[in-house]
Predict the structure.
Amino acid sequence: MAALSRHYALITGGTEGIGHELARLFAQDGYGLILVARTDSALQQRAQELSAQYGVDVVPIACDLMQPGAAAALYDDVQARSLTVEVLVNDAGQGQFGLFVEQDLQRLLDIVQLNVASVTALTHLFLKDMVARNQGKVLQLASVASEAPGPWQAVYHATKAYVLQLSEALANELKDTHVTVTALQPGATDTDFFRKAGMLDSRILDSKLADPAQVARDGHDALLSGDAKVVSGLKNKVMVAMSNVLPDSLVAEQINRQQKPRDGAE
């Protein structure tokens, strides 16, 4: 049986992709894990694997953060278990591929609920406890999409811009404390994101995708260093630098060409 931990990392979207790789890294550090995802079976499987491999306590909590009120219910659940969250990782997020006016409105609102409302609620609730203890760290998945307008993924890019702006503002507000907020900005990464977004026909998949393990390592290291943000990957660093000097209209056209469907797929 895994030893009980006095400090926990709570990771949303912790059963796959970047979230799973982050869970492995924090388990290696000796943190207990609170894994949050929608599918209980996947959570139970990951919990058993990580507990057996790293000998840490793993608490799986099934929660659909697309539902209003779910973030507050998750916080209450963690409090009821008397677990102290020293690291919060807001990894869970989704997108939707296609022209804005052709998308299902409820699907877009669900993405806003997950990427913006739930991230805001979880950050606020757990950050208050961290500030009261004057100790804690928050890692937000912001994406390089946060730096540019995103034709074919307009709502996703907009939500990630919100996450980045929120994170940088909080990092400044907390600069005189022992609590830090770090924004991780990966580019296109080899995860299930594209399938869930209905994006398998996008030209962006013709480029080399980042390794989620490396992205997680970049975010983990930046978090431990107390950095306000980190862009993962040299190519993405160059892209972000260019987007900061080029006119937004030109950047939007570049993103349009990169993300639009392949010829014949529209």
The chain is about 50% helix and 15% strand. The radius of gyration is 18 Å. The first helix runs from residue 17 to 28. The chain has a mean pLDDT of 94.
